[in-house]
UniProtKB/TrEMBL annotation:
Transmembrane segments: 12-30
GO biological process, one term: protein O-linked glycosylation
Membrane topology according to the record: Single-pass type II membrane protein
Domain of life: Eukaryota
Major location (coarse): Golgi
Gene Ontology annotations for the cellular component aspect, listed alphabetically: Golgi membrane
UniProt keyword annotations, A-Z: Glycosyltransferase, Golgi apparatus, Membrane, Signal-anchor, Transferase, Transmembrane, Transmembrane helix
Protein name: Hexosyltransferase
UniProt family annotation: Belongs to the glycosyltransferase 31 family.
A Pfam family hit: Galactosyl_T
Enzyme class name: transferase
Amino acid sequence: MYRLCRPVKLSFYFMFFGLCVVTVVKLIIINQADTVRKRPIENDFVHPIEVGTSPTLVSTHLRTVGPTNVAMTSIQNYSSSFANLTRLNNKDLLEVILDDHLPESNWTNYKLNFSAKNELNYTFLITGEEICMKDDPYLLIIIPSEFGEVSRRDLLRKTWLRAATTNSWPKREIQNKIKFMFLFGTHSNVASEELKSLTKESILNNDIVMADFEDTYRNLTVKILVGLKWTIKYCSKVTYVLKCDMDTFINVPLMMEFLHYVQNNRSSDNFLIGLRHGYDKPPVVRDVHRWKVTETEYPLAYYPRYMYGHTYLLGRGSLDVLIAAAGSKPLIAPEDAFITGILPKLGGVLRLNAACFTMCCRQIFDCEVVWNKNVAITEIKNNERLERLWSNIAFNQCNNTISITEQT
Ligand SMILES: *[C@@H]1O[C@H](CO)[C@@H](O)[C@H](O)[C@H]1NC(C)=O
Ligand SMILES: *[C@@H]1O[C@H](CO)[C@@H](O)[C@H](O)[C@H]1NC(C)=O
Ligand SMILES: *[C@@H]1O[C@H](CO)[C@@H](O)[C@H](O)[C@H]1NC(C)=O
Ligand SMILES: *[C@@H]1O[C@H](CO)[C@@H](O)[C@H](O)[C@H]1NC(C)=O
Ligand SMILES: *[C@@H]1O[C@H](CO)[C@@H](O)[C@H](O)[C@H]1NC(C)=O
Ligand SMILES: *[C@@H]1O[C@H](CO)[C@@H](O)[C@H](O)[C@H]1NC(C)=O
Ligand SMILES: *[C@@H]1O[C@H](CO)[C@@H](O)[C@H](O)[C@H]1NC(C)=O
Ligand SMILES: *[C@@H]1O[C@H](CO)[C@@H](O)[C@H](O)[C@H]1NC(C)=O
């Protein structure tokens, strides 16, 4: 259907972006006096194999590098933009993920000898049952959120999430129905205040779901599982589910092109797609509290290969399988490893790596967003940047401006 291999174009992209990356990296190094530990810069065209760092808490600020370079192009044609996704390497868009780093006998030991019973039947304090009521969406977007992120939620509703509420995108129509929900748990001390305020927000926007589990970072796994259970109950006829974070930006029409490609490419919808985590052998962290997992929860030294947690996609057929698998294993805190690695492997859900799905571990040019280089980008933590990206898309223009990601 699509021409995926364009060696000539690709080599042009390679040279162009290679040059850009090298120049910008140099400029960053020159500009940064206080040398914080930098996240590795991903080669623009090669999937990173060994990133070598654990996920870190980061904050983003902006800096303009070099002369501005405003590019004005004609109205976007997303069939042709889709060709820009293939720039990552001259490989297939979807690559089946295998676990040749994990001895079969070790996995069997975990599979047979480790068990738990998780009911996961939390009560929905705000059911959001009307979200999917009128039409069955093609795509449901689940965004875990927190009470205090009111202004970010409003900004998301005004920017890329408008694709769902208006079925359109700057200079584009969106043909498929899209719905989204912000997902919440609760805290004992502020629960009633939260509930009141979120109920108001829910009446206004019809995009809130809240359940009565304790909403902590170490319970993120529970939060996502609750979101999947909600989907099975209240949005059962959905075709695809996308989990993304509050700082993720989705190029929605491009995502639709990607989903159509996936739909044509796959005979079953029992799969999970994302950008494969850079670790070749994803290590289990035993000592750092945030990701700590004990040997009684998960005994092996490595996880199955899994996706970056900020953006991943689930076929409808995988939901029941994942929930069933989650019911019988100790729940561990690292959401990405558990939901996109362990559960699919346990339940027999195909994991697919899509290099174009999102970006990892390097600065992102505004122009890369406007030029349709990825279906999703992440770490857009700064509201002005989100606004600027959106207006760039609206006016189809961009600056040679990058965001510099630093450790806090
Ligand atoms: C969009 O681009 C594709 C591939 O380059 C081309 O076949 C198609 O005719 C274009 N459509 C429009 C409306 O320009
Ligand atoms: C399960 O654990 C027992 C006791 O530790 C061990 O003997 C057995 O080999 C394990 N089963 C598998 C499939 O590894
Ligand atoms: C969860 O479901 C089980 C059985 O289906 C029931 O016994 C239990 O009370 C339920 N828990 C909650 C909190 O509703
Ligand atoms: C996760 O939520 C459940 C249900 O509210 C709670 O019992 C548990 O303590 C929470 N766990 C963590 C680590 O916050
Ligand atoms: C699906 O895509 C893969 C490459 O990503 C390709 O090898 C395969 O032939 C495609 N299958 C179909 C049915 O299009
Ligand atoms: C597999 O199990 C063996 C024996 O228990 C252990 O020595 C080895 O470290 C395990 N490997 C992994 C990857 O967990
Ligand atoms: C594809 O990327 C190139 C730069 O590599 C850019 O000039 C072009 O506008 C992009 N095409 C679309 C349709 O986004
Ligand atoms: C590009 O940068 C210039 C100077 O900083 C600014 O005036 C302009 O609005 C920017 N354009 C975009 C599209 O961000």
